[in-house]
Backbone:
């Protein structure tokens, strides 16, 4: 994992959802795996998330949501990244998604979705394999 | 030791035979290895292989166990418990708009539910109207969208509010929604003196766990105390706070942490009300509690029994309460959402049944049973009915309600009850040392204790030390469920337009006058003459929306944002 130390990840909670158990566990697991982690805390707008991602020069945004508002906030984050010429920042998601929403979100550009029961080791392995630091890309 | 349950001579024999049995047990295990290295509860509290009178020998029956309805209330808050009447079957419900939720209320009442419980959507929970840019995509998704007094009226249409008790899960904006509830009830001809119900109104656990955050801790406590004061004087049958462990547990706390942090939140509310000048025996009887019933059966029963004893002792010894009603920990219980699995969702019925049974054996006053599809979404009608029926089967078929506190005297349950109390009291002393709950929250203490416990549990699941069927053992794919509720995105636009029309109709002068009075009271020193509740009731009658009242709060008191620690 030569690249692992260089990866910067923003773990973000879009919308008004307060279910942060998963986001905080994943943030801690990313940190333990050697990634640099920034966690936004709850109640971030897509605008705030994208602005933080750009300022912090992250390689990956991990969006966590359990409120059902992903149909608005996930595509909005992707749209804002494009508007800010930062579409090379990858976006993944974690939370609860109706099955019919999963292909829609992936089609919109979410690289991967992790659902309830996902193992931390699998998430970390996926990130290690699929996300390259932007500076080296 | 005159009141000791077992005589010294009997204990000597038990001790001798216990040692002999232990020898045999160890020999037998040497041949058949133990299933696990270490046996522990879901909270990772280690438990022994067997409990005997040796584990409870120092117990004074009257001080520790006693009788139902008698101090220290270990065995229940009423003398009759479920021989008199069952717990209130109170299904948490809310989705879409007020009409959709009213329909669900009537459906549940028609199928035998005995109390109402309202789930609000995230914008309502956070003090925003549906039109707020921050509410995009959330309207009606996780509960019902309520912006105005008109919405409140439609929510409770054709329900007798003097007969049914209503619980509202609402925290920073609790005063506003309660004002709408009272104003609506009075408009329907009901008397505020006869209204029964509960507002959750537990702001401290929001900082610790649930994260519906709006105002800083001190201002939040001021508003909570205003509602306690107003309820004491004006709405005497209302539970002004539901001091909640549920969300603390869902965030990953252990049973002991849930017990300790929640009871300490309770201590803080009592201290604040006393500071306001209220007498403990005038308001404490209207404080209620809310526990999580997780999957570890005996741990939950022990936690609930310990909670009653702890609260009774704290109210008597720490606050000098004299009225027995002030010492009663009356509580609602919800089965643990976090124990349910998206995989093989029908198995959730079994989990919920087990958890509901623990809540009943723990002596709950009211109960929500989760629906099997609640891992995906707020429940469908079909799944909510199965969950309600689960309670009715426990109540009326199983026979577990025939005897009061049937596990009282179980060596294991009594020893575990004692252990819960001891460990929770250690946390309470720690919180005292830290200077109280607000100081502890500012230091991130309870938040990080819970985060550590949540991470520890996740690691245990991934290592296979804790089993979740369908997830880390007998793993299975997530199937499609035929009855997952869908909330139409269209609801958002309709709700925004409805609130807009409502605001256009109001008398602008009367509205402004009411809002000016609310500002004056918020800016003044906390006291009865500056209590926000009378002004809020006037404001919502004059057409103030939820967000307009909450924006006023935010302007006067400032805001609070999640520090985002992990």
Residues:
């Amino acid at each position: 994992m030569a690249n692992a130390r260089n990866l910067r990840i923003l773990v973000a909670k879009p919308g008004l959802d307060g279910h942060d158990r998963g986001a905080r566990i994943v943030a801690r697991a990313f940190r333990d795996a050697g990634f640099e982690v920034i966690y936004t805390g709850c109640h971030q707008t897509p605008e705030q998330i994208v602005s933080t991602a750009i300022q912090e020069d992250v390689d990956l945004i991990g969006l966590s949501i359990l409120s059902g508002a992903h149909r608005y906030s996930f595509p909005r984050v992707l749209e804002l990244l494009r508007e800010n010429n930062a579409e090379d920042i990858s976006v993944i998601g974690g939370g609860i998604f109706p099955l019919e929403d999963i292909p829609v979100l992936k089609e919109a550009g979410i690289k991967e979705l992790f659902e309830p029961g996902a193992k931390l080791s699998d998430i970390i392995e996926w990130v290690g394999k699929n996300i390259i630091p932007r500076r080296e890309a | 030791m005159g009141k000791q349950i077992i005589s010294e001579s009997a204990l000597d024999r038990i001790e001798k035979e216990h040692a002999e049995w232990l020898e045999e047990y160890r020999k037998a295990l040497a041949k058949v290895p133990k299933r696990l290295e270490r046996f522990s509860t879901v909270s990772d509290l280690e438990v022994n292989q067997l409990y005997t009178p040796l584990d409870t020998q120092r117990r004074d029956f009257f001080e520790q166990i006693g009788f139902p309805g008698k101090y220290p209330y270990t065995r229940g808050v009423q003398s009759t418990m479920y021989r008199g009447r069952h717990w209130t079957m109170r299904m948490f419900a809310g989705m879409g708009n007020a009409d959709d939720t009213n329909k669900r209320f009537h459906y549940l009442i028609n199928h035998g539910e005995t109390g109402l419980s309202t789930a609000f959507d995230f914008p309502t929970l956070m003090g925003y109207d549906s039109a707020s840019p921050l509410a995009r995509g959330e309207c009606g998704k996780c509960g019902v969208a309520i912006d105005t007094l008109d919405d409140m009226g439609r929510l409770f249409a054709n329900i007798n509010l003097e007969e049914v008790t209503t619980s509202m899960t609402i925290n920073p904006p609790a005063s506003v929604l309660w004002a709408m509830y009272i104003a609506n009830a009075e408009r329907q001809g009901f008397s505020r003196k006869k209204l029964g119900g509960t507002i959750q109104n537990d702001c401290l656990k929001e900082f610790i766990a649930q994260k519906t955050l709006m105002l800083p801790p001190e201002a939040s406590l001021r508003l909570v105390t205003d509602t306690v004061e107003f309820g004491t004087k004006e709405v005497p049958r209302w539970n002004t706070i539901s001091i909640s462990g549920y969300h603390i547990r869902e965030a990953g706390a252990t049973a002991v942490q849930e017990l300790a942090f929640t009871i300490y939140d309770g201590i803080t509310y009592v201290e604040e009300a006393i500071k306001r000048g209220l007498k403990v025996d005038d308001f404490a009887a209207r404080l209620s509690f809310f526990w999580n019933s997780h999957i570890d059966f005996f741990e939950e029963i022990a936690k609930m029994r310990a909670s009653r004893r702890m609260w009774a002792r704290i109210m008597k010894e720490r606050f000098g309460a004299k009225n027995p009603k002030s010492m009663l920990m009356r509580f609602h219980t919800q089965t643990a959402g976090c124990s349910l699995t998206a995989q093989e969702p029908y198995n959730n019925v079994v989990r919920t049944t087990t958890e509901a049974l623990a809540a009943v054996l723990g002596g709950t006053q009211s109960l929500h049973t989760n629906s099997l599809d609640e891992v995906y979404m707020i429940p469908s009608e079909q799944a909510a009915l199965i969950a309600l029926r689960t309670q009715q089967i426990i109540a009326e078929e199983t026979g577990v309600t025939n005897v009061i506190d049937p596990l009282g005297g179980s060596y294991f349950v009594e020893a575990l009850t004692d252990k819960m109390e001891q460990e929770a009291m250690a946390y309470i002393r720690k919180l005292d040392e830290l200077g109280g709950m607000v100081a502890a929250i500012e230091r991130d203490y309870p938040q990080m204790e819970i985060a550590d416990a949540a991470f520890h549990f996740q690691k245990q699941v991934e290592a296979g030390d804790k089993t979740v069927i369908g997830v880390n053992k007998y793993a299975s794919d997530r199937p499609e469920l035929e009855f997952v509720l869908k909330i139409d995105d269209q609801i958002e636009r309709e709700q925004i337009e409805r609130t807009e029309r409502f605001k256009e109709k109001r008398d602008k002068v009367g509205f402004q006058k009411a809002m000016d009075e609310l500002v004056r009271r918020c800016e003044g020193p906390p006291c009865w003459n500056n209590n926000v509740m009378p002004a809020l009731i006037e404001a919502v009658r004059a057409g103030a929306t939820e967000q307009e009242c909450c924006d006023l709060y935010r302007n006067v008191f400032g805001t609070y944002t999640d520090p985002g620690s992990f």
Remarks:
- The interface with chain B takes residues 11, 15-18, 20-21, 23-25, 27-29, 31, 37, 39-43, 45, 67-73, 76, 96, 98-99, 115-117, 119-121 of chain A (CB under 8 Å).
- Chain A has one domain: 4-136.
- The mean pLDDT of chain A is 94.
